[in-house]
Amino acid sequence: MPDQLLDRLQETLAGLLQAMPNVRGVVIALSGGMDSMVLLDLCSRLQSEFPSFYPQLSWRVIHVNHGLHEDADHWQRHCLNACEQRSMSCQSFSLHLRNKLSSSSGEGLEAMARQARYQVIAENMQAHEVLLTAHHAQDQGETVLFRLLRGAGPRGLSGMQQAATVPGSPSYPLWRPLLGELPEDLRAYAASRASFGATSWTETRAGSGQMRWIEDSSNQDIAFSRNYLRHRVIPDIARRWPGWLSSVERSADICRDTEQLLQSLANQWLADCQGKQPGHLSVQGLLQHSQAERDVMLRQWLWLHCDQWAGQTVLEQLTSLLVAAEDRQPQLNWQNRVIRRYRDELLVTYKLPALSALPEGGYEWALAPASEPSRSSQPPQPQPPQPLVLPGNGRLLLEPVAQGGMRWPVAGGVVQVSYRQDGIKARLPGRPGKSLKQLWQEAGVPPWLRERSPLLYIGGELAWIAGIGVCDGFQAPAFEPGWLPRWEMPEE
Fold first, then answer.
1. 3-state secondary structure of 236
2. Res 37: pLDDT
3. In whole angstroms, what is the distance from residue 288 CA to residue 432 CA?
């Protein structure tokens, strides 16, 4: 049995590597529990017993000490010792989450710890590396049941994927090579392996001649929903339906195929509902679809923009947003984003930070002194100023252009930067004077940006408006070089 498990892992990894030939390094996520210790031991054997099969791969381990359990430091030493015994390089990171997350409990604390763990792992992975985790068939069954009880649709009921990406870091692949393995096969393997790296810590579970691993007492706490499923619900299911894991996996496969079809349809519908700007959606285009089709489209659209799967409550709120009166400036705050409707456009923006109060007279921005004179006949050229940081509002940059753009004060001259005030009017080249509100409406600048759009003044006169352009009288002479201001908006 142990060698069969090793053979199946080798076959699985070979298939995954064939699908992703650019992978050059393997990172094993090690908690110290039985499942991850089995994965560590199997990978150590692959590295030592079949070196010619993986000549291009480097192997290493990452352990994250959350600091939530009183024995967490013991677990950390256990993992380091186990890796040392197998000549595997191991990085260990201590998070001390107990102090930071003392106000959380239950699934909320567990979810935060999982998120923090993946964040640390992602921050310490390198290009062309893949993360291996020890999820197995019962983990898959628990996941599907748990999501079913929370009202998940086809995407959630698809379960975990054997090949995915590290959460929060779409550039790093994550593989679950043991996902099809039964837990009893992992336990049999653990029991068959000689003890490695024995420690004196009494909470390490090991019998005579058995592999050593950690038993986390919190895994027995049925206050956690997943533990309740594992210890109270699933044993009854398994007694009544011994093949339940295979049945759940078949259902997950069907849901996975269904979800792929829905995504394909959603992408086709989204292409037909594109707004005027990339990534925006036409409200009228959306409303021409049925509610069910619209829900599929909006879920896919939000996934593409926010990397989060929207629940039914969010979709109901979005439906209300689509039909709300335009003068209400409808919006929905979700996942650190703001979903807005402007005219016939539905769009996703970041939450903007609070805008800092302007100093008296506004911010000052000046050209750098002219460059040193050269021996050529060309006069010294003024240098563009350093980017002007606008507290809470991004920054302004000034770039030279060969012709067009706007004129700028001579070197040493100062430009004032301000924001919208009541009663301001402006005149664009060749057009009559209008209020800023009219100009912004004509240019399609949305209301939430108008209050923070930078205005450039030269000699007390309005010279440039972000999102609109250069005002009359301040454009550079025809066929002569000028300057082009650019506003980089803030992002949270």
1. helix
2. 96
3. 40
The pair of three-digit structure tokens given for residue 191, joined into one six-digit string: 């029991």
Q: Which of 449, 492, 443 lies closest to 340 in space, CA to CA? A: 449
Quickly count: other Cβ atoms within 10 Å of residue 323's Cβ. Answer: 10
Confidence of residue 208 (pLDDT cuts 50, 70, 90): very low
Long-range pairs, 80-83, Cβ under 8 A, ≥24? 81/197, 81/199, 82/30, 82/32, 82/37, 82/40, 82/196, 82/197, 82/212, 83/30, 83/40
* Contacts (Cβ under 8 Å, ≥6 apart) of 128: 22, 23, 24, 25
Tell me the pLDDT tens digit for each residue of 72-88. 899 999 999 999 999 99
β-pair type (414-418, 455-458): antiparallel
Are the C-beta atoms of residues 154 and 259 closer than 8 Å to each other?
A: yes
Chain mean pLDDT for the chain = 87
What pairs with residue 397 in β-bridges? 486
Cβ-Cβ contacts under 8 Å for 151 (sequence gap 6 or more): 311, 312
Instruction: With H, G, I as helix, E, B as strand and everything else as coil, classify residue 335.
Output: coil
Per the document, the length of the chain is 492
Nearest in space to 401 (alpha carbons), one of 329, 486, 466, 334 = 486
DSSP structural state of residue 336: T
Percent of all residues in the chain with a pLDDT value above 90, rounded to a whole number: 60
Contact present, 175 and 130 (Cβ < 8 Å):
yes
- Asked if 394 and 489 touch (Cβ cutoff 8 Å), the reply is yes
Q: Are 395 and 388 in contact (CB under 8 A)?
A: yes
pLDDT of residue 433: 92
pLDDT computed for residue 377 by the predictor: 55
Please say if the pLDDT value at position 201 is more than 60: no
* DSSP three-state, residue 176: coil
Compute the CA torsion angle 243, 246, 247, 251 (nearest 10 deg).
170
Confidence check: pLDDT of 215 > 90: no
Q: Position 456: which residue type? A: L
Name the pairing type of β-strands 455-458 and 461-465: antiparallel
Residues 134-153 have pLDDT tens digits of 999 999 999 999 999 988 88
For 51, counting Cβ atoms within 10 Å of its Cβ (0-12 exposed, 13-18 middle, 19+ buried), the class is exposed
pLDDT above 90 for 158: yes
Average pLDDT (248-258) is: 95
On whether the CB atoms of residues 35 and 167 are closer than 8 A, the answer is: no
Residue 198, pLDDT above cutoff 50: no
Report which secondary-structure segment, H or E, holds 214: strand 213-214
Residue 170, classed as helix, strand or coil, is coil
Q: Tell the burial category of 3 from Cβ atoms under 10 Å away from its Cβ (0-12, 13-18, 19+).
A: exposed
